[in-house]
Design brief:
alpha+beta; five-stranded antiparallel sheet; four-stranded antiparallel sheet; 38% helix
Length: 527
C-alpha cells in the first residue's frame, strides 16, 4: 500500500509531536529502593520498620554525621564556633547544593555549621571536615569510627556531604539511631534543624525541610537528602504531648510524596507510642584509640583534652640536714645541763655512800627522767647526716657483734609528768563548728523563666511538671515556683543562671512551648 504525500506529512508531524513531548516532559526521578523506620525517641523502641537494614544511598543525610562530629569537636576543645576557617579549593569545587564559597575565602566555623544543617550546603560540609581533620579522607575515617561507636553497624562513609560515591551507604535503622543521638547528645545545637531560615555569614539561607516543618504539627527537624541514586530521603522528628517520634524514609519519589509518607508514619508512631514512658538516653559513644591516630597535615592547632588522675603520690623522703660540729657540741652541752637539772630537782640529798652496789629507786627514777628529757630534746633537734644503720629483718638471725658495732635500742616511754603536762587542757574556748543547712543562692543564680499564666495553682503546677520532664537537661537544677498575681497563677522556674535560663527558653521555644526569661529584678518581685 502506497501512502499519499499528505498522509506522509501527517505521520511525520505526529512523530515530531511525540518526540517533543518525550524530550521536554518534566523529568521524574527513577524509583529508588524504599526503606523506613519509626522509633520512640524516649526509649529507642522500634514502632515500625520496613527494609530497615538494607544498605542504601543516604545522600545528604550524611551531613547529620558531619554535624555530629562538628558538635563533638567543639565540646572536646578541638575547634571553636568562632574559629575562622580558610576555604580550600576542594571545598569550593563541590557541586550544588552549595553556599557559594570561594577558595581562599575566610568564614567562621559557626556559619559553616548553619549552612550544612539548614541549606544542606555541600561546600560547607566539606569545609567542616577539612577544618577538623585536615583532609576529607581523614574526616571520613573519623566518621566511620564515630558511626561504629554509636552502633551504626551497616554504615560506611566516604565523604562529608553525601553525594553518591561507591561504597558510601547506610540504612534506615542507622540513620534513625544517629538522629536520636543528635537530639540527646548535643541538645544545645538541636534547634538548628528547626530553623526555617538562618544567617550563614555570606547570606541568609532557607531550610530544605521547611515544607514538612510548616505542615506537620510538632515537627522540629532533622535532615533531608536527595540524589538520583538515593531518591528523596528524610529523617524527621516531632514532639506532641511529651511524646517524641523519629521517622526515617529512604527512596521517596518526590518531595511531596515523601513528606506525605513521613507524616503517615509519624501518625502511626504517635498512635503506637505509650502516653507515658521513661526517658532512656542513649549511651555516649566510647572510642577505642581515637586519640592515638597521628595528626593529619593541615590539622594544626588541634587540641585533645585528656583527663587523668594520679594513681599513687608517695610522700617524699626528707633530705638529711648536716649539722656543724659547733652546733652538735652546743646541743650535747644543753642536753647534759637539762639532765643534771632534772636529777637535782627530783633526787634526794646526797647522804648516801659514794660507792654503792645498787642505786636507790629515787635516784634511778631521777636518772631515767633526765635521760627521757634528754631524748626528747635530741628528738626535737635536727638529726645529723649519718650513715643509715642496717636493721635486721624480722625472723632472721642476729648478726655477730663484730658485724654490727652499733645497736639500736627500743625507745623508752616518756615520763608521766611530761605526758600530763603536754595534755593539760587549754584555757581558751574553742568555737563550735557552724553547720550550714542550706546552700546560698550566690553564683549568679538569680534568673528565672516563666512558662505560662494559668487559671489555677493546680494548672500551673501541672504545666511546670510537664515542662520539667520535657526539658530535663536544662531544668534539672531549677526550682518550680507558682506565684499568684492579679492576672492569674504564674508558673516559674527559679534559681537559674542567666546562661541556663537563656538556653532553656531557646530550647522550649524551639518546641513551640511558651517561655520568657526573667531577670534578677523581676525574680525579686516573685519573693
Amino acid at each position: 500500500m502506497q501512502l499519499r504525500p499528505w498522509q506522509c506529512a501527517r505521520i511525520g508531524l505526529f512523530l515530531a509531536v511525540i518526540i517533543c513531548v518525550v524530550q521536554f516532559a518534566p523529568s521524574r526521578a527513577q524509583a529508588a529502593p524504599y526503606a523506613a523506620m519509626v522509633m520512640d525517641a524516649r526509649t529507642g523502641e522500634v514502632l515500625h520498620s520496613r527494609n530497615a537494614d538494607t544498605q542504601l544511598h543516604p545522600a545528604s543525610l550524611t551531613k547529620m554525621m558531619t554535624l555530629y562530629i562538628a558538635f563533638e569537636a567543639i565540646k572536646r576543645g578541638e575547634i571553636s564556633p568562632d574559629t575562622v576557617v580558610t576555604i580550600t579549593s576542594k571545598a569550593a569545587a563541590e557541586p550544588p547544593s552549595k553556599l557559594g564559597l570561594r577558595a581562599g575565602q575566610k568564614i567562621k566555623f559557626r556559619y559553616l555549621i548553619r549552612a550544612a544543617a539548614v541549606k544542606s550546603a555541600n561546600d560547607a560540609a566539606t569545609a567542616i571536615g577539612i577544618a577538623i581533620s585536615g583532609s576529607e579522607a581523614a574526616f571520613a575515617r573519623r566518621m566511620n569510627r564515630t558511626a561504629k561507636a554509636l552502633g551504626m553497624t551497616r554504615t560506611q562513609f566516604k565523604n562529608a556531604h553525601g553525594l553518591t560515591e561507591n561504597g558510601h551507604l547506610s540504612t534506615a535503622r542507622d540513620m534513625t539511631t544517629l538522629g536520636r543521638h543528635l537530639f540527646f547528645d548535643h541538645p544545645q545545637y538541636y534547634n538548628l534543624f528547626s530553623r526555617i531560615t538562618t544567617d550563614a555569614g555570606v547570606r541568609a539561607v532557607s531550610n530544605t525541610n521547611r515544607r514538612f516543618l510548616n505542615s506537620y504539627k510538632g515537627a522540629d527537624g532533622i535532615k533531608t537528602g536527595y540524589t538520583r541514586a538515593a531518591g528523596f530521603n528524610l529523617v524527621a522528628s516531632a514532639e506532641r504531648g511529651g511524646e517524641r517520634i523519629i521517622t526515617t524514609v529512604f527512596g521517596g519519589q518526590s518531595t511531596a510524596s515523601r513528606n506525605a509518607k513521613v507524616a503517615e508514619l509519624m501518625d502511626l508512631g504517635f498512635r503506637r507510642a505509650p502516653s507515658r514512658a521513661p526517658i532512656r538516653k542513649p549511651a555516649l559513644p566510647v572510642y577505642a584509640n581515637v586519640d592515638a591516630e597521628p595528626a593529619q597535615p593541615g590539622a594544626a592547632g588541634k587540641t585533645i583534652r585528656l583527663v587523668g588522675a594520679v594513681k599513687l603520690s608517695p610522700r617524699p623522703t626528707p633530705r638529711p640536714i648536716a649539722q656543724e660540729p659547733a652546733a652538735q657540741a652546743q646541743l650535747a652541752a644543753l642536753t647534759e645541763s637539762i639532765k643534771d637539772a632534772v636529777i637535782t630537782a627530783i633526787a634526794e640529798p646526797e647522804d648516801e655512800p659514794s660507792v654503792v652496789a645498787e642505786a636507790a629507786p629515787e635516784s634511778q627514777a631521777a636518772t631515767k627522767t633526765a635521760e627521757s628529757v634528754a631524748e626528747i630534746v635530741m628528738a626535737a633537734a635536727p638529726a645529723p647526716a649519718a650513715k643509715p644503720i642496717a636493721q635486721p629483718l624480722v625472723g632472721t638471725t642476729a648478726a655477730p657483734a663484730s658485724a654490727a658495732p652499733e645497736t639500736v635500742a627500743a625507745p623508752r616511754s616518756r615520763p608521766a609528768a611530761i605526758v600530763l603536762t603536754s595534755l593539760q587542757p587549754q584555757t581558751e574556748t574553742v568555737a563550735e563548728p557552724e553547720v550550714v543547712t542550706r546552700m546560698s543562692t550566690s553564683g549568679g543564680r538569680h534568673w528565672a523563666i516563666n512558662v505560662g499564666v494559668l487559671g489555677s495553682r493546680y494548672q500551673a503546677e501541672r504545666v511546670l511538671l510537664k515542662t520539667a520532664l520535657k526539658e530535663i537537661d536544662t531544668l534539672d537544677e531549677a526550682l518550680r515556683k507558682v506565684v499568684r498575681q492579679s492576672n492569674g497563677w504564674h508558673a516559674n522556674f527559679v534559681g537559674m543562671s542567666e546562661a541556663q535560663a537563656d538556653l532553656a527558653c531557646r530550647r522550649l521555644n524551639a518546641r513551640n512551648t511558651r517561655c520568657k526569661v526573667l531577670g534578677p529584678a523581676k525574680v525579686a518581685d516573685l519573693n
